[in-house]
Write a structure and sequence with these properties.
Length: 111
């Protein structure tokens, strides 16, 4: 099973913006769909708690590993970005599953 990439501290020193790292299309050139979730206060938690939240998110994304193409957890911004194949209802299904495991996570937007 291919697990999605979830980086713990991806933007601490990265010069490249997310829009350049996150794919816009899958390997066959089909456009992807994206959504963001905020996890308020995540960056202020002790590292073991951050690791636990990351583990919970990763376990959710692993359940959707065929559909999730890219995922990044930005601790500094308290932001989870997920790019998925365009399947009807998938973004909401993943967002709800993340909220089940991380109740403080809030869906911000999906495109």
């Amino acid at each position: 099973m291919n697990l999605p990439r979830v980086a713990l501290f991806p933007l601490m020193d990265a010069a490249e913006p997310l829009r350049h790292r996150a794919p816009a299309a899958d390997e066959e050139g089909r456009p992807l769909s994206d959504f963001m979730m905020l996890i308020p206060g995540l960056r202020d938690r002790p590292r073991p708690m951050i690791q636990e939240v990351m583990s919970r998110i990763h376990s959710v994304l692993a359940c959707f590993s065929d559909e999730v193409v890219f995922a990044e957890l930005n601790i500094r911004l308290n932001l989870l970005w997920v790019s998925v194949r365009p399947v009807t209802g998938l973004r909401n299904a993943i967002a709800c599953a993340v909220q089940d495991r991380v109740p403080e996570a809030k869906l911000v937007t999906h495109i």
